[in-house]
TrEMBL record:
Pfam family, one: 7tm_1
Name listed for the protein in its UniProt record: G-protein coupled receptors family 1 profile domain-containing protein
G-protein coupled receptors family 1 profile domain span: 87-343
GO molecular function terms noted in the UniProt entry: G protein-coupled receptor activity; odorant binding; olfactory receptor activity
Subcellular location: Membrane
Major localization class: membrane
Organism: Silurus meridionalis
A single GO cellular-component term on record: membrane
Coiled coil start-end: none
Keyword list, A-Z: Membrane, Transmembrane, Transmembrane helix
């Protein structure tokens, strides 16, 4: 028994040592490439301090590490996954099990968007748990995780764009809608979305692999916030590639917003926003605009962050890590966690299944007429 406990203790200490060495190795790459070593070296030469260069390095490393309460942010992806996992499977089962829902384009595109969001949040939660468990990854394994998250995030964005196109055709050309967008073309559109989503993050992940081939670290902490702070911030090609990719996503989202504004302008002339029908129409547009607003905000913040990396070298890594943690763990996950509730409770065909699952759909008592 004592030998077994001793063996487990040794393995635990070995894993902790590997994790700390990987942190130091990753930070050392940033430390050397960012010019901090030269700056502190000159400071060390000009002053009569008794601290060695290693002590200065450790001091910078302690400043770089976030406070302990920052780890609370790691709970946000787990909570987001639980919120999505409770509702998205119910909505998907409802859509796929009803023949009349499978024949409607909007429900197929909604199912594709919710499936993409579920997979994205699941993989991001997995990387968060692996980081909390001090699990290290090779370059190829980390790149594969980032590539899959990029595919699923892009799939959700492009599915939202397809939903706007479908709604636009249904409102602007109601008589020709069945001819222009039949169900058979919906399946082709879903396949096209996944194909485009595969190629969309490929360039950024390829540059990530190229950057780490020159690194002495054999294993890394596969954390998206740390990748943004320590890798993207000091690789000009990766900055340009990610800036182009994020800008394309942002333009897509802005086109979606413009599409809904155009629909609002068109429907306001037909009297949809007046009378009893206005409340439901306003609620539907509010759901779409809220989801789009929550999706646009992290992309805008990421563009600003990449521009700061490109034109400013004075941004301290602790500030960059704070911004990256809030961006990735909260702003990216929040719209994915709210989407199934917003859309599921909005559509009548899906609302009943969610209310039945949570036990909120109480049957109404019918009083017989005498």
């Amino acid at each position: 028994m004592d030998a077994l406990l001793q063996g487990r203790t040794e393995r635990l200490f070995t894993a902790a040592e590997d994790f700390i060495l990987s942190l130091l190795c990753t930070f050392g790459d940033w430390y050397n490439s960012s010019g901090q070593a030269e700056r502190l070296g000159r400071q060390f030469a000009l002053t009569n301090t008794s601290r060695t260069a290693m002590e200065l390095f450790v001091q910078e490393w302690q400043v770089f590490l976030p406070p302990r309460h920052v780890r609370v942010l790691q709970i946000c992806p787990i909570l987001g996954f639980l919120a999505v996992f409770l509702t998205t499977p119910i909505i998907l089962a409802r859509i796929l099990s009803r023949a009349h829902l499978r024949q409607q384009t909007r429900y197929l595109l909604l199912a594709n968007a919710l499936l993409s969001d579920l997979l994205f949040v699941a993989f991001y939660m997995l990387t968060t748990c692996l980081n909390a468990a001090t699990v290290l990854m090779s370059d190829l394994a980390c790149a594969a995780m980032l590539f899959l998250m990029g595919i699923f995030y892009s799939g959700g964005i492009f599915s939202a764009t397809a939903i706007v196109l479908d709604t636009s055709l249904a409102i602007l050309a109601p008589l020709r809608y069945a001819t222009l967008w039949p169900v058979s073309r919906t399946y082709a559109a879903v396949l096209t979305i996944w194909v485009i989503s595969v190629f969309f993050p490929a360039a950024s992940v390829g540059l990530f692999l190229w950057y780490h081939t020159m690194s002495p670290c054999t294993q890394h902490i596969c954390s998206l916030p740390l990748v943004l702070v320590l890798t993207v911030s000091h690789s000009k090609p990766l900055q340009v590639c990610m800036l182009l990719t994020v800008t394309a996503v942002l333009i897509t989202l802005l086109l979606v917003v413009f599409g809904y504004v155009l629909l609002y302008y068109h429907t306001s002339k037909s009297g949809v926003w007046r009378g009893e029908r206005s409340s439901r129409a306003k609620g539907t547009f509010f759901v779409h605009y809220l989801n789009l607003f929550l999706s646009v905000c992290p992309m805008l913040l990421l563009v600003i962050k990449l521009l700061l990396y490109s034109y400013s070298s004075e941004l301290h890594p602790s500030v960059g890590l704070w911004v990256s943690l809030i961006l990735c763990n909260i702003l990216l996950v929040l719209p994915k966690a709210l989407a199934p509730y917003l859309y599921g409770l909005r559509y009548r065909d899906l609302r009943g299944a969610l209310l039945d699952f949570f036990g909120l759909n109480r049957p109404r008592a019918i009083t017989p007429v005498m």
